[in-house]
Amino acid sequence: MKKFTLVILILLNSAKITAQVMGNSQYVSPKSAGNSIYHNGTSMLPAERFQSNISEINDSTVRVSVKGLINALPDTYVATFNIVQTAGTAEMTDQMMRERLNKLKAKLLEAGIIASDISIDMISFVPKYEIETENRLFSKTYNEIPAGFEMQKNLSIRYKKSSRIDELVTIAAQSEIYDLVKVDCFSSDVESFKDSLRNKCILEVKNRVRSYEGLNLNLDTLKKVIGENFHVILPETRYSGYQAFARTSLKPEKKGLVNETVKSVSQYYQPVTYESFDVVMNPVVLEPMIQVTYQLDIIYLFKPMKNYYIITPIGESKKLILK
Known about the structure:
By secondary structure, the chain is α+β, with helices and mostly antiparallel strands. The protein has 3 helices and 13 strands; from the N terminus they run E-E-E-E-H-E-E-H-E-H-E-E-E-E-E-E. Strands 1-3-11-8 form a 4-stranded mixed sheet, with helices on one face. A 4-stranded antiparallel sheet has the order 5-6-4-7, with helices on one face. The model is unreliable at about 1-20 and about 30-55 (pLDDT under 50).
């Protein structure tokens, strides 16, 4: 029997999210001048992640493959800010850092953030050095001398509504904290999203297998080998960079040098696109999503033939006996 492969693709739908969730940690430099679109190191999802985990297929099999994707709405966010404090002494550095953090925490409590949703992580506390020049008769010596201390801490804030990030950035700026490192997204219902996606894909497989009966192909009677694979794609890994570039239309009347300004770099959210899928639920992605993909592969194995026949030159069929 000739081998033929049946491939079925299915996509499940999207929910909704709000606001950018990237942060400064994802900022990347442009790779080239001119109008360009480029991606950070993790934004592009490799195609091989969607490949089946079943690879052994021969002339005695039929393969049915279903791919699905569902967009899940995060229900918890964690914003991380970096704070750097320097001073002449270790005691002064620590005191000034405490004052800034206490001021920020007080404003957060006033805004309705509870104390258990605020966490502080010590990153570093190191001395800083200056170079002192020592003049000698025929040379100079440069010596490092202590000049102060630097302390770095990260402050993480947990919140439920993504629209609060603007308010948190404003509050942090009022405490002279400007570095938003990242915003992480979480969903407490990831398992339920996976179950819904898996059930939808299984239902689609059953419908397709029943439709093959019209081709006199009854796959349900065959032995099956099943493989499946989930993959979770977080929104912070799906940001891409865009740099707009334009030259001035004014030509200098006199010869001279034109100093061009550095063109700004923009970022935008680019979810996994749908060209690899057939069925889409809630296809419009207005805001960043947690995307869950699923692939189900079923390989149906035909029973090997036990009896073999040959046709003689005079047109007779004879059973071939194998020893």
